[in-house]
Each structure stands twice: as structure tokens, then as C-alpha cells.
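Deviation from plan, reported transparently: FE3-S4 cluster complex.
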Amino acid sequence: MEREQVCVSPEQLTRQREIAQELKDYFAQTLGRSPKAFVDTFGCQQNVADSQNLMGMLREMGFSFTTDAADADLVALNTCAVREHAEKRVYGNLGALTHGKKANPRQIICLCGCMAQQQRVADKVRQSYRHVDLVFGPQALWQFPELLRRVCRTGSRVFSIDDVPGQIAEDLPIVREDAVKAWVSVMYGCNNFCSYCIVPYVRGRERSRDKERILADVRALAAEGYREITLLGQNVNSYGKDLPQACDFADLLAALNEIEGDFLLRFMTSHPKDASHKLLDAMARCEKAAPHLHLPFQSGSSRVLRAMNRGYTREEYLELIDYARAVMPHVVLTSDVIVGFPGETEAEFEETLSLVKEVEFDALFTFLYSPRPGTPAAELPDPAPREEKQKWFDRLLKAQTEISGKKHAAYVGTRQRVLVDGLTGDARWPLSARTAGGRLVHLTGPEDAVGTFRTAEITGSNTWALFGTLAEA
Ligand code: SAH
Ligand code: SF4
Ligand code: F3S
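Because the crystal trials were delayed, the predicted structure below was used instead.
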């Protein structure tokens, strides 16, 4: 696709803003007060970032926000499709909204996000969830004002889930809910088609934002005082492949590192297939790049990795980890893994277990394989019974719990530079913070420390967090 076709034109975006203003008048007149919205987010950081744009558009329409669906004139569920469990939760929440709609028939209910992009879901909502007014996928997010106007004008249900490659919409309005940490998308979509994964079907093709746009965003956030900026993409290592200028993710990171200000750069997610030595070198060199690498390996068996269409072997993965540790001796390593991919044998699971024991990740996100209709893996024979897979899963979790516990215990007695990022609500440890490597720390200390980098003395740990006190500033 030509670059002009990839980027939504400024005229089209202006038109959406005009429609938003029109809707602002419409809601003010029909309600006789300013409207309220409840936006509920179910997915990953990308999904969270989308919700912030959705809220930005709603705010332009005059909405304020509530966390009580019953109190809202508009409810939006921003959904995730990555596992069946995520979808079930959404259906449960959607069902519960029928009561509110009966009490307030003018309430507008929207279903958006990755789950909504699937035809099978749209069909089910059309038939069985008749109180839902508007259904649209991530690719149509920027057109939200127009879609909502159609609902308001016609009073009929609107579905916008066309299977399109997707575009880039710059400068969408945004509500950032946090004053310390911010997300910046560097690319959208995924071209990898891992055989188990629904994301490429619901998020469209890979498209990278212009480097200058990203630099401008990060500069503005740094100037506003944001202390942690996370660069987002399904596979940030694909950044730039589709751009006219030669600029890969390592180049982008190096350019961002030059921006003035005291802030940390994080990114997710990296795909081992194209996580290069160049990227790891750039991380090691850039003092603003957090010493944290989230590198999902998914399986320790090269046979399973091939069936997953991951594009690397166990040995190649381990080589990358060795290199990362060689250039960043204190790097924090985390990963994702799937247990029970169709056809996985116990011996292959053991290879996953042995990889986990060999690498000793600081933390691991473990998932039981969940068949996603429409993906190639969902068609494969899957002979291992659920109980068997659950046993493997429990074994893996037990091994990782020990490793995380041991890794965290090693912090006790050390001093760490942390970013205090919020309040916990727990009087014993009122502050929450992160080490540079991203480990969670609960701290004692004054509330005004939020938003600052501090030194913490680590006094305790468990498998999921560290505990400590703030040292003198
Ligand atoms: N783009 C990211 C991951 C996005 S999904 C990447 O490639 O690393 C987040 C995680 O969900 C994946 O890493 C994988 O471990 C898990 N996942 C994806 N599809 C799944 C499925 N069908 N069943 C179980 N886990 C899945
Ligand atoms: Fe899914 Fe693979 Fe793309 Fe990640 S890289 S989003 S796991 S298809
Ligand atoms: Fe994220 Fe879930 Fe979509 S993990 S990309 S919200 S399917």
C-alpha cells in the first residue's frame, strides 16, 4: 500500500472532530445536561492505549467519565480476543448490561476492540445481545464519532467490522489517565501469523508510524514530566520495515534516547525472530532504555516452535538470551509461554520446562493454549487431555515461582533506583514503584514521592514483588 493510503488524511480526521462537536450539542440538548460514559478495557496495553483515544473522542463530545455502568449514558466495552477466557468475561459483562438498558433505554452500548472485529462475534451479538447498539473493531476506532452519529440519527444498530488492512490515524484526541507513565504506539498490526494467534486477523497488517511523529510525541510527554514511556507494538522489531526511510527499531530507540529529560523508555513486545544483536546493543548503549527485555519464547521445543510458525529454534532463542546477558549483565528478562499447543507431547513440554530452568526468567506469563476459531492451530488434532495439560501448567508455574522467589530474594539488602509510580491503598506499603528493570516494589514513604525517581532500600520480597523503604532523597 502507498504511504498516503496507510495514513488517514487530515481532512478525514477533521471531519470526525466536526462530527464530535455536532454530537456534543446533540447530547447536551437531548439530555439537558452533559453526558457520562463508562469505558471498560479488557485487553493488553495496545487495547488500553485505544481506550485512551476512545475517551479522548468522548471528551470532545462533552462526556465526563464514571466507573458505574448504571450511571452512564454510554457504555463502551473495549475487548480482547486472545484467549477464550477473555471473550467469556466480555459476554458475561455484556449480559449484565441488559438490566441497565431496561432501566434506561436511551443508554448507548458499544462493543469495540479485538473481539468485536470477528464476524462470528458480530453475528452472535446481532442475534443474542440485542441491547448492543454499536459494534466496531480496532481498525474503525478513528471513525467512532461518525459511527456514533449514525446510531443517534437512525436509532438502529450499527456494525463496522470490515476486514481491512488498517490505517494510521495521527493526532486522535487522548485522555491519559496517568501523569507518570504513558504509552506511545510505534506501530500497529501484525504480519507474523503465529498459528495459534488471533491478533493478525483482528489488528490488520503491520504499519509503522513516522519516526518524526513518534519523536514529537515523546518529546512532548517528556516536557510534560512523564517519567516512563512505553513504546507499543505487537512486534516492535518489525518497526520501520514498511517505511520509505531506512529506520529500524534500534535506530528509533537511539533517536529517542537523545531527547532531553529524566525518563525511562520501555517497549513491548519483541519477537525473537527479529530481535537483533543491533537492538540489544542499542539497549545496552542507551541510558534511557530500561534494562528489561520481554522476549516471549512460547515453547522450548523447536518442533513445537515450527508448528507455531514462530520462525526461530530453541537454540536461536537461547543464543539471543546469552547475547543480551553478555551486553547487559543486569538485564531483567521476562517472557510468555504457551502450555499445551495442539500435539505437544510431555517430552516437548519438558523442553519448555528445561528452557525455563536454564534461562531463569525474572517473571513469566504462562498461558494454557486456547483454540481461536479461524487460526490454523485450531484445526490441528489436539490429543492431550485438558487435565494432563493442567498438570504440565502447574509444574511450570511451580518451577517459575521458585525462580522468581529466588531472583527477588537477591534484591534484599540492596539499594535500587526506582520510579515511584502510584499509591497502593495499603497503609503498610503506601507507595508502588518499579525498578529500572521493571520489578514491582512496595514502599513506605511520603505520598509526594509519586512521580519521582528515588533510591529504595529493599528489605523484603516474595515471588511477585519487592518491599522496602525510601532512602533520603
Ligand atoms: N505480540 C506479542 C503477543 C501478543 S499476545 C508477541 O508476539 O509476543 C500475548 C501472549 O498471549 C502471547 O505471547 C502468547 O503467549 C499468548 N497467546 C496468544 N494466543 C494464544 C492462544 N491462542 N492461547 C494461549 N495463549 C495465547
Ligand atoms: Fe500473535 Fe505472533 Fe503476532 Fe504476537 S507475533 S501478535 S503472538 S501473531
Ligand atoms: Fe491485545 Fe487482546 Fe487485541 S492481547 S491486541 S487486546 S486480542
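The mean pLDDT is 96. We consider this an acceptable substitute for the interim report.
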